[in-house]
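Re: beginner question about structure tokens

> Can someone show what the tokenized structure looks like for a real chain? I only ever see the sequence side.

Sure, here's an example I had lying around. Input first:
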Amino acid sequence: MAGVSRETVPAPDPAVAAFLVPPERLLLMERYAGLLANEGVSRGLIGPREVPRLWDRHLMNCALLAPLVPEESRVADIGSGAGLPGLVLALARPDLEVTLVEPMARRVAFLEEVVAVLQLQSVAIARARAQDWVPASRFDVVTGRAVAPLPKLLAWAMPLVADDGVVLAIKGAAAAEEIEAARPVLRQWGARAEVVTSSVPDSSVTTVVRVVRDRRAGIG
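And the corresponding structure tokens:
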């Protein structure tokens, strides 16, 4: 995989990028954008029409998850695909240890090459289906974006998250309705969910469903 983009990717809004990405990591994020725009498109991981909006619709949308992740967390990103949001979190937050969980061989190959090109030593990759994966230990944070409806996502994520950990699922306008549909799963795990937003002033907003264990066990 080449480390230099062949396809021109529109530059991010400097103020937004500075708000979300440490200056010393911005070049790595730009290289990742280039890889998505080229190898990601040629391998069918990103649609060609997404290239002009890679930063706003994808990278910054995922980077807005970073402020919701506690410091020095161990993170599992299930159904990672092309690395969204897991790779973005690893780039924006070098304090995190991130494991990308992805079952498809061609996606895993892309992720492995990106991690090698960008020399991301804090990132591991597990080729597995989330529902079948049994890690050595559970995680502080489990993330997911465009993986599955919330009830199914939680059925996969809750066994992976520590008792005092959190699930962060990037969702859209129907987040509240998805929480209602997930009530049986939430009760099963003694968990509660809320819709939270993360935003950059006068710019992007990301809607997230945040799920934690409910200390009043059994209340969804």
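Each token stands for a local structural state, so reading them left to right follows the chain. The radius of gyration is 17 Å.
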